[in-house]
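name: query_chain
kind: protein
chains: 1
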Amino acid sequence: MALTLDPKRCAVMAMDFQNEILGMTPQYREKHLLGTVKRVLDAARHAGAAVVYITVSFRDDYADAPAHSPLFQDEKARGVMKAGSPGAAICDELTPQVGDTVINKHCVDPFNGTHLANVLRARDVDTLVLMGVWTNYVVEATARTGADSSYRIIVVTDGCASNTEANHQFFINQTLPMLGTAATANEVIAALR
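structure:
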């Protein structure tokens, strides 16, 4: 059955497409990930869907980073993902456009400690179309919380990448079927028309 979407009730989310995270994502170039994500974002804007960017960054002293998270304590030790730094910036290929929403988080899950739920509610969104790096971190966390919050979840399989292909595939094939639907960029673009 063909994917159907109501663009007026969709939020198309581009998550953690930041320079330092992409630098730790080995297969994003060979997958042509950024071009794929850009095509979906352009189609979403054209169709009138909400476009939401999620970023992660911290103060210079990392006082806003989760204190007991090995992931974020490692980032602190390496001095990466500082707010306002070139490494924490959204990559040039996916620069937000006028009308897009950008929400910064301080953990993996963009619903935790942000105004994301309010933004979605104000737009009367009922469907989340997810793309991001890493699949088994931000995409999975958003899919889990979104599904628990009664959103319809669509994950653009070729709009995501992870630190390993095995981690990406595990989420897509094992976890996602219990949370939502897998779709390709072409399927999503066709459904937004």
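note: The first helix runs from residue 19 to 23.
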